[in-house]
């Protein structure tokens, strides 16, 4: 019964293959579109390659050991570095991660596991709105909440602003990662007599862990590259600072200050600092990409 | 040993939202016997076994009513579902090993997560031997569980379920995703396991029901149509619907 329709479909296919004109035309169209796609890829890569080229070619000459270890030199003096800004960025990003990562991942677990009710929907909506808030606005909020209350610019205020930036994106990506875990694993664990909270933490989250670590690294990289939220929270500092209640230098704000200055030497240092930042952020992103592959 | 059945179900009804999935089910399961549940798709077989370890109520919108007695005590009144599930284990249709854990840690998952202290090495060896997996995996206990074949993974799931020492083992179409050789191994295993456990197995495969079970229950449209010894159900059914189903006239 099936055979006649089967043979007609085979004949149909064969006639398509053997019609020379249409095959040529389709082959031509195929090559044309493939070429067009390749061209678009090249165009898309152009900005990236020019950024890399500019930053490396202008930044590399500025790099030296003292560039990483010394304080900024006063105008007119040669030498000096961005040591305090590097430390400040690492310090504030680390501080922000301390609040931002647990809260972000915790919110993500909540959204994935208990996020169906009206409360969960509200939290998800809030996270989405918060993720869309421009970072300068986050800076203003941290200024109003922390700087005004403490009556001083501080590393703490900068870290708060960065943490607020990290939380919503981390929460949403953690939720996505946990939702990717097959439902069968949850059932397997519950059927073994494992309580629901242990199932969430030790089975579901553990299975999603490589994805969550990935998301956390990307959130850290994003925070490290922010300038706007630090401008009027951490401000800047010409000296070493390790106290959370004092203004603190950061690589991004330092780049901004150097770049808008009229001095050639400072411009050079801005390129150098930009290269450092690029390596730091790029390195984190590459690490985030490589990590899950290593696991399997 | 008491004369009463290991597991007794009375007037069990179950719903998904407004749809009734089980209607007034009543049956008993003797200790150390194998009960096969057969019936066409959507007849409530899976829902029935999921009511026996209270997994049914985890589905959003699902609920159930009725009495399920395990050793004479109702599992729906005054029993913590979490501790119940340690007494009534379950194996699912698709092998669901924990992908981030090793073979050894999969066997131990139930014990570890419940903080049960034991001689872990001995448990691993005993469970893997019981599920006829030991010789195949003894040299790579620390490698990932997903490196095993589908049939091996399913036997690992059985080992994992048995490691928490349940009394009853529910199997929801445990061989439906496996090839004939792996299926044969699972069936042999069921035959050996019934010395220690009471087993309820859902199956689409009537030959399998004949091979592994002592008793058979035939479900249709959420109702228990007939329940009796496997021999009687397949050779001398009393109901027309049962006869039509087991002779392959529908379903």
Concise summary:
The complex is a heterodimer of chains A (296) and B (251). Chain A is mainly α.
What do these coordinates show?
The complex is a heterodimer of chains A (296) and B (251). With 296 residues, chain A is mainly alpha-helical. Chain A folds into two domains: 3-48, no CATH class; 65-295, MetI-like fold, CATH 1.10.3720.10. Chain A has helices at 3-18, 20-59, 65-69, 83-114, 118-132, 135-150, 155-179, 183-191, 196-224, 228-231, 251-259, 264-295. Chain B is an alpha/beta fold and 251 residues long. Chain B has helices at 45-52, 81-87, 103-113, 120-130, 134-137, 150-163, 180-193, 206-212, 230-235, 240-246; strands at residues 7-16, 19-29, 34-38, 62-70, 73-74, 88-91, 168-172, 198-202, 215-220, 223-229. The longest helix of chain B has 14 residues, at 150-163. Chain B is globular. The model of chain B has no long low-confidence stretch (mean pLDDT 93). Classes of the chains: A mainly alpha (296), B alpha/beta (251). Chain A binds chain B through residues 116, 182, 184-185, 187-195, 198-199, 202-203, 206-207, 209, and chain B through 53, 55, 58, 60, 82-87, 89-90, 92, 94, 96-100, 109-110, 113-114, 157, 160-161, 164.
**What assembly state would you assign to the polypeptide chains in this entry?**
heterodimer
Class derived from helix and strand content of chain A? mainly alpha
CATH level 4 superfamily of the largest domain in chain A:
MetI-like
How far do the termini of chain A sit from each other? 48 Å
Task: Report the average pLDDT across residues of chain B.
Answer: 93
CATH superfamily of chain B: P-loop containing nucleotide triphosphate hydrolases
Strand content of chain A is: under 5%
Low-confidence stretches of chain A: none
Number of H/I helices of chain B: 10
Q: What's the number of structural domains of chain B?
A: 1
Which structural class should the secondary elements of chain B be placed in?
alpha/beta
Q: Level of helix content of chain A?
A: over 70%
Spatial order of the strands forming the largest sheet of chain B: 6-7-8-3-9-10
Shape descriptor of chain A: flat
Question: What is the alpha-carbon Rg of chain A in Å?
Answer: 27 Å
Taking all Cα atoms into account, the compactness measure Rg of chain B is: 18 Å
